[in-house]
């Protein structure tokens, strides 16, 4: 299936989101509440930050993204994307994302990492954040000055920094109202 066919496809009415992976429609499992909370909280924090610094960028929840690799057959759906490009009323795929966020759950680990590596093929992407939905912490891939990507992501332990948009938030603030913080997982996530 091509991206055009996917966008015109009558998806099953089962309440799930769908993405196109290498020409095959793939259903996304319903997200857990911690996942939803992190997604909405981080979107709100990034949006407030972008407005405060006067940056002409926007954060989108579940935007469509077309990777450069096999672009005619891939329409991926990250949890968040940040773009500084203008967009149209009928547009469904984000143009020129600079930062992409995925929230990793144990049930979607393989799909999430498949998406992450697909995002590295997009020339405009500078950073890819992979937040954990089962513990406080995550990983970040940051494009190197050479334009290449590191072999492995760097851990996000205490502070989340997205250099591409000059954003910074302590993980404790991002996760503060989740059950993960109430059970004290911040210390458990160090070095995870």
Describe this structure in words.
By secondary structure, the protein is of the alpha+beta class. The chain is 27% helix and 25% strand. The strands form 3 sheets. Strands 3-4-5-6-7-8 form a 6-stranded mixed β-sheet, sandwiched between helices. α3 links the parallel β5 and β6.
Helix and strand arrangement:
Elements: H1 3-7, E1 17-21, E2 24-28, H2 33-53, E3 58-61, E4 80-83, E5 97-104, H3 109-119, E6 127-132, E7 138-142, E8 154-156, E9 159-162, E10 167-170, H4 171-175, H5 179-182, H6 185-189
CATH topology: tt1808, chain A
Sequence of secondary-structure elements: HEEHEEEHEEEEEHHH
Distance between the termini: 38 Å
Kindly report the spatial arrangement of strands forming the biggest sheet: 3-4-5-6-7-8
In total, how many beta strands? 10
**CATH class placement:** Alpha Beta
Radius of gyration: 16 Å
- Would you identify the CATH H-level superfamily? tt1808, chain A
Domain count: 1
Helix count, DSSP H or I runs of 4 or more residues? 6
SS class: alpha+beta
Kindly state the percentage of residues in helix.
Answer: 25-40%
CATH architecture: Alpha-Beta Complex
The main β sheet shows up as: 6 strands, mixed
């Amino acid at each position: 299936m091509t991206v055009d066919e996917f966008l015109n496809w009558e998806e099953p009415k089962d309440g799930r989101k769908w993405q196109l992976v290498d020409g095959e429609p793939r259903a996304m499992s319903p997200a857990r509440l911690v996942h939803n909370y992190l997604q909405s909280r981080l979107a709100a924090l990034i949006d407030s930050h972008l407005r405060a610094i006067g940056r002409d960028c926007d954060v989108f929840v579940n935007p469509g993204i077309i990777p450069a690799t096999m672009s005619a057959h891939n329409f991926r759906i990250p949890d968040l994307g940040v773009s500084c490009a203008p967009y149209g009323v009928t547009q469904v795929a984000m143009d020129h994302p600079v930062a992409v966020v995925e929230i990793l759950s144990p049930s979607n680990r393989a799909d999430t990492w498949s998406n992450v590596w697909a995002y590295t093929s997009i020339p405009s992407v500078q950073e890819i954040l992979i937040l954990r939905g089962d513990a406080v912490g995550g990983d970040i891939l940051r494009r190197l000055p050479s334009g290449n990507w590191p072999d492995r992501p760097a851990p996000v332990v205490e502070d989340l920094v997205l250099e591409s948009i000059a954003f910074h938030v302590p993980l404790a603030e991002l996760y503060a109202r989740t059950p993960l913080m109430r059970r004290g997982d911040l210390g458990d996530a160090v070095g995870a």
